[in-house]
Design a protein that fits this description.
single chain; alpha/beta; TIM Barrel; 2 domains; 8 strands; 49% helix
Length: 292
Amino acid sequence: MSTAWASWRAGERSFILAPGVYDGLSAKVAGSIGFDAVYMTGYGVAASLGYPDVGLTTLSEMAAKVATVAEASGLPVIADADTGYGNVLNVQRTVRAYQRAGAAALHLEDQVFPKKCGFFEGKRVIPAAEHAQKIRAACDARDGTDLVIIARTDALAVTGWSDVEDRVHAYREAGADVVFVDGIKTRDDLDNYIARIVGAGVPALYNGALIPAAEAEDAGFAIQILAGASFVPAFAAIYDALIQVHASGELHRPAVPAADSQVTPRQSITDILGLPEIYETERRYQEADSPV
């Protein structure tokens, strides 16, 4: 567990910046760079399975991805748990499955199932009292208190700020460690979030890049996630590369990086995946098995 995350869990509440990852490779890269935590994005996981983020991924698929990301990154994982995949009983099963898989935190949203990505149109929310019960059930289901329960509300685009404030306080009373208002699209939205929720002393998570991490920390946020940090540029690079192959029938190798680049093509992927360590382990055991 990273020092910053351990301090955060101990009550010091140092700011956490978590880039979005969605598979083993993106998690490996994040872990090699030195982040304090990663965010397993539901949008990215759904995309990796070939779906839009509209509630088509299942608990088993998501929990399996938590395990992959946790092992590959070696970092605390803040995981998207969608709506908990059902009622309070389903929520409790979800919490146990995510905790077994290695999640350090998870967020549960108050959308009607099947849900939609927080930035998509057509969202609907369940009654606040119903989601508060789901948050209470989640807190009761965790093994010990190390798992951070984050209560997400998607009510902003549906019912507005007054309802958001009521929901946030209800979810905190139900036991949520952190709250998460999703769908922050404009600077005005963000300013309201800071003034109405963060300014009221509520530990809050910000999902977005309207402000850099230093400014989010100064504003009082506990956590900032950048959900699209890896899969958006990955999609763009894959699409461009395959368009070139389709057009020319040739595979154009990546350009040699600039002198100040932190990685080199080809070699860096195997290094990050741990190939040198695998070779070293093979040599060590081959030497041990060699006849005297």
